[in-house]
Amino acid sequence: MKTNNIIVTKSKAFALRVINLNKYLCNEKKEYVLSKQLLKSGTSIGANVKEAIRGQSKPDFYSKMNIALKEASETEYWLELLVESSYINEAEFNSIYADCQELIKILTAITKTQEQLS
């Protein structure tokens, strides 16, 4: 399903990257705990964005976007732990971390708009 909504597109693409990283961590590194946490939070970003798009009201929309932002922040944490514990190298980390940072910036902008409207 194609969409022109940048946060929907980017959060879904990020979720797919997280799924692939999870497969790599489980299959190659035999790491199951951090990777499962990463999988949960990293895929939850897009799920909450999709829920927000179908929100019943503006407060519902912004509430779901705030949850997506929290999940992105949690994902950022798991990625930092993975690189600092040497499960992934700097090159692997830098690319996906940059994508995570971009999602955080977009979601922050969206949620700040709500704060200004309140």
Can you describe this structure?
The chain is mainly α and 118 residues long. The protein has a single domain, classed as de novo design (two linked rop proteins) (Up-down Bundle), CATH 1.20.1440.60. It contains four helices and no strands. α2 (33-53) runs antiparallel to α3 (58-84).
Main sheet characteristics:
none
Could you say what the CATH architecture is?
Up-down Bundle
The backbone outline, from C-alpha atoms, is elongated
Summed up, the domain count is 1
CATH level-1 class:
Mainly Alpha
Radius of gyration: 15 Å
Poorly predicted spans: none
Task: Please specify the SSE layout and strand pairing.
Blueprint: H1 6-27, H2 33-53, H3 58-84, H4 90-117
Helix pairs in contact: 1-2, 1-4, 2-3, 3-4
Short description, anyone?
This protein is an all-alpha fold and 118 residues long. It has 4 helices and no strands. The protein has helices at residues 6-27, 33-53, 58-84, 90-117.
